[in-house]
Amino acid sequence: MNPRVNPISPLIATGLRKSYGANEVVCGVDLALQPGECFGLLGPNGAGKTTTLRLCLGLTAPDGGSISVLGHDVPQEGREARQRIGVVPQFDNLDPDFTIRENLRVFGRYFDIDNATLRARIPALLEFAGLSSRADTRIQTLSGGMKRRLTLARALINDPELLFLDEPTTGLDPQARHVIWERLRNLLKQGKTLLLTTHFMEEAERLCSRIAIMDHGKIITRGEPRALIAQHVEPHVVEVYGEGVQEWAKACGRRHAERCEATGETLFCYTRDPAPLIADLDSRGDLRYLHRRANIEDVFLKLTGRDLRD
Amino acid sequence: MTAKHWSPPRLSLRFLHVWRRNLLVWRTLAIPSMLGNLADPLLYMFGLGYGLGRMLEDVGGMSYIAFLAAGVICSSTMMSASFEAMYSAFSRMHVQKTWDALLNAPLTLDDVLLGELVWAASKSFLSGSAVLIVAAALGLVPSTLAIVVIPLIFLTGLAFAGLGLIMTALSPSYDFFMYYFTLCVTPMMLLCGVFFPLHELPAPAQLLAQALPLTHAVALARPLVNGTVPPAWLLHIAVLAAYAAGSAYIALALTRRRLLQ
């Protein structure tokens, strides 16, 4: 089906609300995914991302709002919706008692997939996960990256149209993370729709065509990553480190940058024209600095603050 | 707890996926698991049955070892169902997060609970039946009426699996299960007629015993093993069935509260 001809949204959530006691963790979230896109849900810990995913899977009932996933009303038809969704959970829940191949086979049976179809699909999924040569080993021996790849392959066992990925690369080393990103781009090429939660801004920028930043249960901004950067922050960032950075901020930084943020001994200068800052820093030589383009992380920190979230 | 947690269970045959998953795991460990399950009841039967049995003429109209065999069939079923519904189910729910994976597939928590309930009962069925087979091999089972004990073992397993799943739904950690064993399982083992006839107990203790499920399992199993139809058999079956259904329903409501937040 060509999404341009038939632009039915695979996921529409309207006015979602969910409270735990007096604590409202999701307060009025609206989402509408476009077919074939990767949509990123960003936010600090405790922003309500995972709860939003749980609501969309029908694992918990909302206190308000409506959810439609692939044409099914959720949570009433959560089972039918999950039949066509793949889920990569935040924490691996592979079966430690089974081999890699058995993990895929047993999980496939939960979807009532017959043995012939499973026999046909599993080799391709093992290939996709890069685990063909280890298909019959138990999963305890696998590295974190291999487990994540297997979890991703397992989420594809029902050939889902829509994938939910809850922080798919948390805890992985850079190599493993790049492999996962490559696989996810592959899935986008196949036309699958991805809903990704992450707090790796780099991940969101690389993969997502649109993102929404969530904090305290609300979506505080949304749009294309580049547009959001242009809208919220100045295009250049000069990060300055070292003793005496406060004095330098007064003498030069705050004069030449549109906006400065200090955390400890680091100063972030946001500016349209970095040249005067860099010239001054080069002439002094006692402060280290890094000049880079503004990214989603800057937008994120501007909107959600630099305070620690636990 | 809200009314939603108490909504009627939505039963579906998908629970068989959960049962089958557990069976596949168990299959790889079947022999050590069966031997482990048999060791305990057989030690009771031979240790007490021959040792203590020598000092006793007969108990309730049969040799002490035959008397004991029927009791141990039931207590072994109770132990096995309780362990599976608590320690093993808790591992799958809380430690390995197997239930989370099941819930991301097109299964519901109702399917998972029913699967775990029937699985724990199935496993205890193997334990109880193994003791019955050993007793028969020793010539302690004179009548074919003992065949009826086989479905009774399964019903007993369901009752204790349901109770165990209530504990699992409430438990913060493995340590919590010790309370249930110390306060419920061990007293039942001693008070419900496994080792000596109920009427040897003081009256208040007998009354208490009548409220416990193991008493009713033993009251059915002992005459059946010995070849007679148990008096008031319908009442005993009703009590066991009520324990099974009631505890499963409470476990479901508590687990919904715990996991479907």
Descriptive notes:
The complex is a heterodimer of chains A (310) and B (261). Chain A folds into two domains: 35-59 and 78-228, Rossmann fold (3-Layer(aba) Sandwich), CATH 3.40.50.300; 234-293, 2-Layer Sandwich (Alpha-Beta Plaits). The two termini of chain A are 43 Å apart. The longest helix of chain A has 16 residues, at 174-189. With 310 residues, chain A is α/β, with parallel strands linked by helices. In chain A, 40% of the residues are buried. Helix content of chain A is 37%, strand content 27%. Chain B starts with 14 loop residues before the first helix and ends with a helix. Chain B has ten helices and no strands. The interface between A and B is medium-sized, with 27 and 22 residues.
Task: Summarize this structure as a short list of keywords or feature phrases.
heterodimer; A: alpha/beta; Rossmann fold; Alpha-Beta Plaits; 4-stranded antiparallel sheet; 11 helices; disordered N terminus; B: mainly alpha; 73% helix; globular
- The main sheet of chain A orders its strands as 6-7-8-3-9-10
What is the total tally of β strands of chain A?
14
Shape of chain B: globular
Major sheet of chain B, described briefly? none
Radius of gyration of chain A: 22 Å
General form of chain A:
globular
- How far apart are the termini of chain B? 11 Å
Low-confidence stretches of chain B: none
Mean pLDDT of chain A: 92
Quaternary state, please? Answer: heterodimer
Structural class of chain A: alpha/beta
Contiguous runs where pLDDT drops below 50 for at least 5 residues of chain A:
1-6
